[in-house]
Amino acid sequence: MRDFFNVFSAVYYLQRILYLFWIILETIIRELWWLIVLFIAGTIFLNLQRKYKKEEKKKKEEIKDWVTLEIVVNPYITSGAKAMEQVFSGIYSLPKGYVSLELVGIEKEIRFFVRVPRDYKGLVLSQFYAQYPDLEIKEVQDYFLKYPPSLPDKNWDIWGTEMKLIQSDVYPIKTYSSFEETKEEKSVDTLSSLIEGISQLRKEELLLIQIIIQPLTGDKAKEWLEKGEKEINKLSGKKEPPKITWTDWVIAFFKNLLIGVAVPPVWPGESKTEASAPSVPLTKREVVQKISKKIEQLPFLTGIRLFYLAPKDCFNEIAIGTCYAFLNQFTISHLNGFKVNKDSSTKEEGKIFVKRRLFIKKLNFYKSVINRKKTKELFVLVPEELASVYHFPSSKVKSPSLTKTLFRKSEPPPNLPT
């Protein structure tokens, strides 16, 4: 009976405390509600102001004046992908903004375009001419101006997707050096399959591989480098040094105080014996070497977009398979490669308003393509990898879809009369 009254008393006092708490809370809300509203309104205002300043800063930094450069290859170009690697290393000095590298299949021909901020046109040109003195580069109008500003419509349809990497971007893809054999006649140009695929298109069809690159610098580049080093340590079996706190020092002090007479003292961050380096399996050792080689190079934040455009009467999505076949060459099983980013593809599933949602998705994708917007998912590629994907075909590649000029530019003779 006594226990019952004790429980009853406890419940009674708890109810009184809760009631008193509610009275106090009600009084605060009734008397100081305006402070609560003011605090919420102030928080919203500060967030909006911060967002506005961020947008204004983005607008100031945004480059609005762009120039489209067409690179016309000619039979006298003998420099390979290695020269293009040096071009990208030079472009890394781009102060701000990004560059769009474009492999375009248009009118059954492959053409090479580079879209750059006008202020940095000279920088980009100098890098190309330094490695390719015989190159023909001309400023042209954007080739998308010949198409409607908004697609799809009643006459044209589009298809597109964005790519991402299979593994972490510290793992390299297969590069041009892997396609080169000791014997010259066995060397393979990765562009061959793309060029042949484009030659099978109709004149009305357009096929595009758009590569957006931006130099990765500062803290972000440092973070990427650290990520690569952690992956190397993980593959090598090396454990990361534990984080040391003040409690570790206190524990170590008393431990050394008690057993320091018999055993040499050990402090946080020190080890009693030097552990031998763990043996790394051969395949892992190769992976470690490949990752080490990649993170030693200059990093570019990269996005790749595939795009296909054609009149509805000859629209054929299978044509995009040419791009897949081209990019699949750079996949290597135990390292890295490209795969489709399904979230960014012009496909829509479901049962409600599928056609409408697909139409809007295609409109937005087309807008991103013509405005050269960054892709939704970005990853890091280095000059060697970029040069493997975007370079000029070697003289061994023979195809009717490969446009080449029949001339080369040179300086006038010094004794030319004026």
Write the layout of secondary structure elements.
Blueprint: H1 2-61, E1 66-72, H2 81-91, E2 99-106, E3 109-117, H3 121-131, E4 136-140, E5 156-165, H4 191-199, E6 206-215, H5 218-236, H6 246-259, H7 282-295, E7 300-311, H8 321-328, E8 338-341, H9 354-370, E9 379-381, H10 383-389
Helix pairs in contact: 2-3, 2-10, 4-8, 5-7
Summarize the entry for a quick read.
This protein has 418 residues and is an alpha+beta fold. The protein has 10 helices and 9 strands.
Verbal overview:
The chain has 418 residues and is α+β, with helices and mostly antiparallel strands. It has ten helices and nine strands. It has a domain of 259 residues: Vanillyl-alcohol Oxidase, Chain A, domain 3 (3-Layer(aba) Sandwich). Strands 1, 2, 3, 4, 5, 6, 7, 8 and 9 form a nine-stranded antiparallel β-sheet that branches. A hairpin with a 2-residue loop joins β2 and β3. α2 crosses α10 and α5 runs antiparallel to α7. About 1% of the residues have low confidence.
Total strands: the figure is 9
DSSP helix fraction: 40-55%
CATH architecture of the domain at 61-220 and 291-389: 3-Layer(aba) Sandwich
Number of helices: 10
Residue-averaged pLDDT, rounded? 83
CATH fold call of the domain at 61-220 and 291-389:
Vanillyl-alcohol Oxidase, Chain A, domain 3
